[in-house]
Design a protein that fits this description.
This protein is mostly beta strands. It contains 3 helices and 16 strands. The protein has one domain: Alpha-Beta Plaits. Strand 4 and strand 5 form a beta hairpin. It is globular and about 60 Å long.
Length: 258
């Protein structure tokens, strides 16, 4: 088993919250389905071939089913906001419309999939030749991809008393239990910063595509250094999240894939 990683960045990103329709509010990280769409752009997997096929075709569903992703935020979080005037359809007047953009986002993306998909992804990254142009949430936010590598000697670990600097999910809260499924240990002598976002998470249960809003815990850099979060205990009721260590990683540090 191996994991493919690459650096992803751009001047702007526009990952939108689908639950907000009145304004274009953006999130710090892409959802898993957005990342699967980006991988599909690299590999040539279309989300849908026609309007009669539905939102997702079988190739996209297969890619989503076989692939787990991880995200590490490597940049300070900064957003810019601007307003435009849109013509109202109900009244003879204009109204302001708020738009947000994430500024200079930088991520490291981790991908674990089948050998066939991993090899195809590595080949595209080596050649720097993608089927479709990858973007960061919108066509006016082109993505830059670099620094790829294949991580070997990967070992799955239990998420108890480990440290992570990648995004991790709470599979309990807002799903099957009113109680959080993550216990985080914080230390005064180890500063860390975490942003919590709610994302619509798509996953395959059996042969059925399901969606659920889950809380995503996002460690972000603080004072130019990665925020290492110590997880005291973790419950994975939906079995969506797994933690891995690999040769060369720091002691007790793991990456989270979901």
């Amino acid at each position: 088993m191996s994991i493919v990683s690459f650096d992803l960045e751009g001047d702007f990103a526009a990952f939108k919250d689908p639950s907000v329709t009145t304004n274009q509010t953006v999130t710090v990280i892409p959802s898993k389905s957005a990342l699967i769409g980006l991988l599909g752009a690299i590999l040539g997997v279309k989300r849908s071939n026609s309007i009669f096929e539905g939102i997702y075709n079988q190739d996209y569903i297969d890619l989503l089913k076989k692939t787990a992703v991880g995200i590490k935020v490597r940049s300070q979080v900064a957003k810019c906001t601007f307003f435009t005037n849109h013509r109202s359809l109900k009244e003879a007047k204009t109204k302001p419309y708020k738009t947000e953009l994430l500024v200079n986002p930088k991520y490291t993306i981790y991908v674990k999939s089948t050998d066939e998909i991993n090899e195809a992804l590595l080949e595209r990254l080596r050649r720097n030749h993608f089927v479709f142009s990858p973007t960061l949430g919108h066509v006016y936010c082109p993505a830059r991809i670099s620094g790829f590598k294949e991580i070997l000697e990967v070992t799955q670990v239990e998420p108890n008393d480990i440290q992570v600097s990648t995004v991790f999910l709470d599979e309990n809260l807002e799903s099957k239990s009113p109680c959080p499924g993550v216990e985080i240990d914080q230390f005064k002598d180890f500063p860390a910063k975490v942003i919590v976002e709610r994302h619509l998470h798509h996953y395959i249960y059996g042969e059925t595509l399901k969606q659920l809003v889950l809380r995503h815990y996002i460690p972000v850099p603080e004072n130019g250094k990665n925020s290492l979060i110590t997880i005291g205990s973790y419950e994975s009721n939906l079995s969506l999240t797994k933690f891995y260590t690999f040769e060369g990683s720091e002691q007790k540090e793991a990456i989270c894939l979901y």
